[in-house]
Amino acid sequence: MTDKRIWRHQAWFRYYRMILFHPRKPICHLSGTSYFTGKDDQFETVQVPWDENTVVIRPEARDKSLLATALIHDYEDEPVEDRLTGIMMHTRCWQILQTHKTWSIYGGDIKLILRALRLKSARDWKPLQNYSNLAFDLKSWPVSQYGIDLYTEPNALRIIQQARRRRKKRFKVIRCRRTTYLNYLPAEILFMIANLVQPQEVEATQEAIGSYLGDRYWQSRIPTYLYETLPLSGEILDWQYLCLALERQGYDFWRIRLQGRWWVLGQLDEIAGFAGS
Questions:
Q1: Which residues constitute the domain of residue 198?
Q2: Within this chain, do residues 195 and 118 fall inside the same structural domain, yes or no?
Q3: Is residue 241 a contact partner of residue 160, using CB atoms and an 8 Å limit?
Q4: pLDDT digits (tens, 9 = 90+) for 61-79
Q5: Element (H or E) spanning 251, and its range?
Q6: Average pLDDT of the residues of the chain
Q7: Which 8-state DSSP code applies to residue 25?
Q8: φ/ψ bin of 88: left (φ > 0), alpha (ψ from -120 to 50), beta (otherwise)
Q9: What is the mean pLDDT of residues 166-185?
Q10: Which end of the chain is more exposed for a tag (fewer CB within 10 A), N or C?
Protein backbone atom coordinates (compact mmCIF):
# COMPACT_ATOMS: atom_id res chain seq x y z
CA MET A 1 0.00 0.00 0.00
CA THR A 2 3.00 2.30 0.10
CA ASP A 3 3.61 1.99 -3.66
CA LYS A 4 3.28 5.51 -5.07
CA ARG A 5 1.96 4.15 -8.36
CA ILE A 6 -1.20 3.04 -6.57
CA TRP A 7 -2.03 6.63 -5.63
CA ARG A 8 -1.07 8.29 -8.94
CA HIS A 9 -3.21 10.95 -10.63
CA GLN A 10 -4.51 12.08 -7.22
CA ALA A 11 -7.12 9.31 -7.39
CA TRP A 12 -6.77 8.29 -3.75
CA PHE A 13 -10.50 8.79 -3.16
CA ARG A 14 -11.34 5.95 -5.57
CA TYR A 15 -9.53 3.33 -3.48
CA TYR A 16 -11.67 1.79 -0.79
CA ARG A 17 -12.05 -1.08 1.63
CA MET A 18 -15.21 -2.65 2.98
CA ILE A 19 -16.15 -3.91 6.40
CA LEU A 20 -17.94 -7.06 5.32
CA PHE A 21 -20.71 -8.55 7.44
CA HIS A 22 -23.61 -10.96 7.12
CA PRO A 23 -26.78 -10.44 9.19
CA ARG A 24 -27.31 -14.21 9.64
CA LYS A 25 -23.76 -15.51 9.75
CA PRO A 26 -20.80 -14.84 12.11
CA ILE A 27 -18.96 -12.82 9.48
CA CYS A 28 -17.31 -9.49 10.21
CA HIS A 29 -14.21 -9.00 8.12
CA LEU A 30 -12.05 -6.21 6.68
CA SER A 31 -11.60 -6.57 2.93
CA GLY A 32 -8.57 -5.72 0.86
CA THR A 33 -8.43 -2.59 -1.27
CA SER A 34 -10.35 -2.18 -4.50
CA TYR A 35 -10.74 0.62 -7.05
CA PHE A 36 -14.12 2.30 -7.55
CA THR A 37 -14.79 3.12 -11.20
CA GLY A 38 -17.57 5.02 -12.91
CA LYS A 39 -19.13 1.71 -13.96
CA ASP A 40 -19.55 0.72 -10.30
CA ASP A 41 -22.17 3.45 -9.88
CA GLN A 42 -24.53 1.31 -11.94
CA PHE A 43 -24.54 -1.59 -9.50
CA GLU A 44 -25.64 -2.24 -5.94
CA THR A 45 -22.83 -4.74 -5.42
CA VAL A 46 -19.04 -4.54 -5.77
CA GLN A 47 -16.23 -7.08 -5.77
CA VAL A 48 -13.43 -6.69 -3.25
CA PRO A 49 -10.46 -8.92 -2.35
CA TRP A 50 -11.16 -11.07 0.71
CA ASP A 51 -7.51 -10.84 1.81
CA GLU A 52 -7.06 -7.50 3.59
CA ASN A 53 -3.45 -7.22 2.35
CA THR A 54 -4.43 -7.46 -1.33
CA VAL A 55 -5.02 -4.57 -3.75
CA VAL A 56 -7.17 -5.18 -6.83
CA ILE A 57 -7.47 -2.50 -9.52
CA ARG A 58 -9.44 -4.56 -12.06
CA PRO A 59 -11.55 -7.26 -10.34
CA GLU A 60 -12.60 -8.75 -13.67
CA ALA A 61 -8.98 -9.73 -14.32
CA ARG A 62 -8.54 -11.65 -11.05
CA ASP A 63 -9.41 -15.14 -9.91
CA LYS A 64 -13.03 -14.90 -8.74
CA SER A 65 -12.30 -17.27 -5.85
CA LEU A 66 -10.12 -14.53 -4.31
CA LEU A 67 -12.89 -11.93 -4.44
CA ALA A 68 -15.99 -11.33 -2.35
CA THR A 69 -19.14 -9.92 -3.92
CA ALA A 70 -20.87 -7.68 -1.40
CA LEU A 71 -24.00 -5.58 -1.37
CA ILE A 72 -23.23 -1.92 -0.68
CA HIS A 73 -24.91 -1.02 2.60
CA ASP A 74 -27.32 1.90 2.24
CA TYR A 75 -27.67 3.96 5.39
CA GLU A 76 -31.44 4.29 4.80
CA ASP A 77 -32.15 0.54 4.76
CA GLU A 78 -31.71 -2.38 7.09
CA PRO A 79 -29.16 -4.96 5.87
CA VAL A 80 -30.59 -7.66 3.60
CA GLU A 81 -30.87 -10.77 5.75
CA ASP A 82 -29.40 -13.32 3.34
CA ARG A 83 -26.67 -11.26 1.60
CA LEU A 84 -23.05 -10.51 2.34
CA THR A 85 -23.04 -6.74 2.89
CA GLY A 86 -20.31 -4.18 3.24
CA ILE A 87 -19.78 -0.64 4.51
CA MET A 88 -17.42 1.23 2.22
CA MET A 89 -14.55 3.31 3.57
CA HIS A 90 -11.75 5.15 1.79
CA THR A 91 -8.52 3.21 2.21
CA ARG A 92 -6.79 6.39 3.35
CA CYS A 93 -9.51 7.00 5.95
CA TRP A 94 -8.89 3.50 7.29
CA GLN A 95 -5.17 4.27 7.58
CA ILE A 96 -5.96 7.41 9.56
CA LEU A 97 -8.34 5.41 11.76
CA GLN A 98 -5.49 3.06 12.69
CA THR A 99 -3.45 6.00 14.03
CA HIS A 100 -6.39 7.59 15.86
CA LYS A 101 -7.43 7.06 19.49
CA THR A 102 -10.57 5.32 18.16
CA TRP A 103 -8.41 2.36 17.15
CA SER A 104 -7.02 1.87 20.66
CA ILE A 105 -10.38 2.56 22.34
CA TYR A 106 -11.97 -0.30 20.38
CA GLY A 107 -8.83 -2.42 20.54
CA GLY A 108 -8.81 -2.72 16.75
CA ASP A 109 -11.95 -4.89 17.01
CA ILE A 110 -13.68 -4.78 13.62
CA LYS A 111 -17.06 -5.73 15.12
CA LEU A 112 -16.99 -2.83 17.59
CA ILE A 113 -15.85 -0.39 14.90
CA LEU A 114 -18.63 -1.61 12.59
CA ARG A 115 -21.21 -1.10 15.33
CA ALA A 116 -19.95 2.44 16.01
CA LEU A 117 -20.04 3.29 12.30
CA ARG A 118 -23.63 2.08 12.01
CA LEU A 119 -24.69 4.01 15.11
CA LYS A 120 -23.10 7.18 13.77
CA SER A 121 -24.71 6.68 10.36
CA ALA A 122 -28.12 6.20 11.97
CA ARG A 123 -27.67 9.37 14.01
CA ASP A 124 -26.41 11.52 11.12
CA TRP A 125 -28.74 10.39 8.35
CA LYS A 126 -32.01 9.41 10.02
CA PRO A 127 -33.37 12.99 10.21
CA LEU A 128 -32.80 13.50 6.48
CA GLN A 129 -35.75 12.68 4.26
CA ASN A 130 -34.06 13.02 0.89
CA TYR A 131 -30.79 14.03 -0.73
CA SER A 132 -31.96 17.63 -1.19
CA ASN A 133 -31.69 18.06 2.58
CA LEU A 134 -28.05 17.03 2.86
CA ALA A 135 -26.20 19.01 5.51
CA PHE A 136 -23.33 19.73 3.13
CA ASP A 137 -22.71 20.28 -0.55
CA LEU A 138 -20.47 17.57 -2.02
CA LYS A 139 -18.53 20.28 -3.91
CA SER A 140 -17.56 21.87 -0.60
CA TRP A 141 -16.87 18.56 1.17
CA PRO A 142 -13.43 19.06 2.79
CA VAL A 143 -12.20 15.59 1.84
CA SER A 144 -12.70 16.31 -1.88
CA GLN A 145 -11.05 19.73 -1.98
CA TYR A 146 -7.74 20.24 -3.80
CA GLY A 147 -7.56 16.51 -4.65
CA ILE A 148 -4.89 16.20 -1.94
CA ASP A 149 -4.18 12.69 -0.69
CA LEU A 150 -5.46 12.55 2.90
CA TYR A 151 -2.36 10.74 4.11
CA THR A 152 0.47 12.38 2.15
CA GLU A 153 0.67 16.14 1.67
CA PRO A 154 3.13 17.22 -1.10
CA ASN A 155 4.69 20.12 0.83
CA ALA A 156 5.37 17.92 3.85
CA LEU A 157 6.99 15.28 1.61
CA ARG A 158 9.20 17.94 -0.01
CA ILE A 159 10.43 19.14 3.40
CA ILE A 160 11.11 15.55 4.47
CA GLN A 161 13.28 15.03 1.39
CA GLN A 162 15.24 18.16 2.26
CA ALA A 163 15.77 16.86 5.80
CA ARG A 164 17.07 13.58 4.39
CA ARG A 165 19.60 15.42 2.24
CA ARG A 166 20.81 17.29 5.34
CA ARG A 167 21.37 14.14 7.41
CA LYS A 168 25.16 14.67 7.50
CA LYS A 169 24.75 18.24 8.72
CA ARG A 170 22.79 17.22 11.78
CA PHE A 171 26.05 16.46 13.64
CA LYS A 172 27.28 20.00 13.00
CA VAL A 173 24.35 21.76 14.66
CA ILE A 174 26.36 22.41 17.84
CA ARG A 175 30.15 22.63 17.65
CA CYS A 176 31.08 23.60 21.20
CA ARG A 177 29.63 23.42 24.68
CA ARG A 178 29.30 26.54 26.81
CA THR A 179 28.91 26.64 30.57
CA THR A 180 25.58 28.13 31.69
CA TYR A 181 23.14 27.46 34.51
CA LEU A 182 21.02 25.45 32.08
CA ASN A 183 23.86 22.95 31.66
CA TYR A 184 23.42 21.86 35.27
CA LEU A 185 19.75 20.98 34.88
CA PRO A 186 18.77 17.31 34.50
CA ALA A 187 17.83 16.47 30.92
CA GLU A 188 14.19 15.76 31.90
CA ILE A 189 13.80 19.25 33.41
CA LEU A 190 15.50 20.86 30.41
CA PHE A 191 13.10 19.06 28.05
CA MET A 192 10.10 20.18 30.13
CA ILE A 193 11.24 23.78 29.90
CA ALA A 194 11.92 23.47 26.16
CA ASN A 195 8.41 22.13 25.59
CA LEU A 196 6.96 25.36 26.97
CA VAL A 197 8.45 27.54 24.22
CA GLN A 198 8.33 27.66 20.44
CA PRO A 199 10.75 25.47 18.43
CA GLN A 200 12.58 28.58 17.16
CA GLU A 201 13.30 29.59 20.77
CA VAL A 202 14.56 26.08 21.53
CA GLU A 203 16.99 26.44 18.64
CA ALA A 204 18.31 29.68 20.15
CA THR A 205 18.58 28.00 23.56
CA GLN A 206 20.70 25.23 22.08
CA GLU A 207 23.08 27.82 20.69
CA ALA A 208 23.23 29.54 24.09
CA ILE A 209 24.12 26.39 26.05
CA GLY A 210 26.17 24.82 23.26
CA SER A 211 24.26 21.54 23.44
CA TYR A 212 22.01 19.66 21.02
CA LEU A 213 18.83 18.32 22.65
CA GLY A 214 18.82 15.27 20.41
CA ASP A 215 16.89 13.78 17.50
CA ARG A 216 14.21 12.26 19.72
CA TYR A 217 13.40 15.63 21.24
CA TRP A 218 12.99 17.32 17.86
CA GLN A 219 10.98 14.39 16.59
CA SER A 220 8.61 14.76 19.55
CA ARG A 221 7.96 18.43 18.64
CA ILE A 222 6.55 17.62 15.20
CA PRO A 223 2.73 18.00 15.21
CA THR A 224 0.95 14.65 15.47
CA TYR A 225 -1.41 15.51 12.60
CA LEU A 226 1.48 15.35 10.12
CA TYR A 227 1.22 11.63 9.37
CA GLU A 228 3.90 11.95 6.71
CA THR A 229 6.51 11.77 9.48
CA LEU A 230 5.18 8.59 11.13
CA PRO A 231 7.25 6.13 9.01
CA LEU A 232 10.44 8.13 9.69
CA SER A 233 10.98 7.24 13.35
CA GLY A 234 13.91 4.94 12.59
CA GLU A 235 15.54 7.14 9.94
CA ILE A 236 18.69 9.20 10.32
CA LEU A 237 17.92 12.71 9.10
CA ASP A 238 18.10 16.31 10.28
CA TRP A 239 15.20 16.23 12.73
CA GLN A 240 15.78 19.77 13.94
CA TYR A 241 15.56 21.10 10.39
CA LEU A 242 12.48 18.99 9.71
CA CYS A 243 10.66 20.27 12.79
CA LEU A 244 11.55 23.91 12.17
CA ALA A 245 10.75 23.78 8.45
CA LEU A 246 7.33 22.25 9.10
CA GLU A 247 6.68 24.79 11.85
CA ARG A 248 7.77 27.64 9.58
CA GLN A 249 4.89 26.88 7.20
CA GLY A 250 2.54 28.08 9.89
CA TYR A 251 -0.61 26.69 11.47
CA ASP A 252 -2.91 28.49 9.03
CA PHE A 253 -1.08 26.93 6.08
CA TRP A 254 -1.59 23.40 7.41
CA ARG A 255 -5.16 24.19 8.47
CA ILE A 256 -6.03 24.91 4.84
CA ARG A 257 -3.94 22.19 3.21
CA LEU A 258 -5.05 19.48 5.64
CA GLN A 259 -8.68 20.44 6.14
CA GLY A 260 -9.81 17.15 4.59
CA ARG A 261 -7.62 15.22 7.04
CA TRP A 262 -8.89 17.25 9.98
CA TRP A 263 -12.48 16.68 8.89
CA VAL A 264 -11.85 12.93 8.97
CA LEU A 265 -10.22 13.24 12.40
CA GLY A 266 -13.31 15.07 13.64
CA GLN A 267 -15.54 12.25 12.39
CA LEU A 268 -13.30 9.71 14.13
CA ASP A 269 -13.55 11.69 17.39
CA GLU A 270 -17.32 11.27 17.14
CA ILE A 271 -17.02 7.55 16.40
CA ALA A 272 -14.85 7.20 19.51
CA GLY A 273 -17.71 8.75 21.47
CA PHE A 274 -19.92 5.75 20.73
CA ALA A 275 -17.71 3.46 22.83
CA GLY A 276 -19.87 1.81 25.47
CA SER A 277 -23.13 2.90 23.79
A1: 154-257
A2: no
A3: no
A4: 667 778 988 988 876 666 6
A5: helix 251-257
A6: 81
A7: B
A8: beta
A9: 66
A10: C
